[in-house]
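During the no-cost extension, the postdoctoral fellow (Dr. R.K.) reprocessed legacy sequence entries with the updated structure-token encoder. One reprocessed record is reproduced below for audit purposes.
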Amino acid sequence: MGRLTTAYATTADGICPVCERTAYLTLRGDDLLATCDSDCDESKLLAALDTDAVRAELRVTCDHEEEPPERGERSYAELIEAAQRPSRNGAGGRREIVAESFASIAAERTRWLWDRRIPLGCATLLVGREKLGKSTLTDELAARLSRGELPGDFAGEPAGTLIVSYEDSAARTIKPRLMAAGADLAHVHRTLAMSKGARDLVTLPDDVERIGELAVRYGVRLLVIDPLSAALNGKIDAHREQDMRRQALAPLAQLAEECDLAVLGLAHFNKARAGDLLSRVLGTRGLTAGVRSVLAFGRDPDADEDSVDRGSSTPPATTRRRRPRSPAGSRAERSRGRMARSSRPPGW
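Re-encoded structure tokens follow.
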């Protein structure tokens, strides 16, 4: 059996002997409940385990329970455990669905990581043609957030960014961009996956829980996935709406809400020249339908600049422009033959 996820819960995690994905074992009284990420048959899962040994270990955990810390100190895994476990396993391991009255739910205003463009607690899509500088824009946002200078609810409060990148070198591309943008590098992190002592790729939705734990540990308010399509595991068909909405985007939305952060996924336009903007996003329509804000990144036809248009689910806002130029004396870095912007227009 694997390690215990927490010192005061009656739950342990390990590997499911049926599907070899993560399994969750819970002791409630004398009842041992079992489930896994693939929802394998509970009887088969328990039949492959030494249930007496599992009960004994979990009882030892119960005998040494500690008072749970405050919510802000609890790991993402613990928050998800508390929120999901009752609904996934009722008495005897039976799945239950409960009703919650809206009278007990407190209304909240929309909060913004980037004012009127990237909402907190939600997933946002940044879409544009390749090689225009979408990744450079995310590095600029991370830099401003690290200094507490990003317009939004964290203005004046430095916060962290976690970058999951599949295309750019951390040493040769991402760090020089962050330095050029004046980032407080202590607030910007990248993800590294390890499997059996070797480097591996971060995959979704498999690693969502682990990413959530890192977000809580490092005070992350912005999670960048560049590009989103590269993060999907082999079981997800990026061209099937149900796969994208339920298996890829729903776990990210839950992560964003539980950890009070913004998820920013990068995507490309397809080759279509006609139709509305959302229909031109590469992949299924479920990709744009499953996020709360869609930002279009492209060239302004009236100027030799790059611009960020407003999101489809965000309030009207003026177009933001960023010119790839470097004023004399400013810090800059060359990336793919073009100069990354390092000037900061007031109010951008």
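Residues 112-339 form a domain with the Rossmann fold fold (CATH 3.40.50.300). The first strand starts at residue 11 and ends at 15. The remaining legacy entries will be reprocessed before the final report is submitted.
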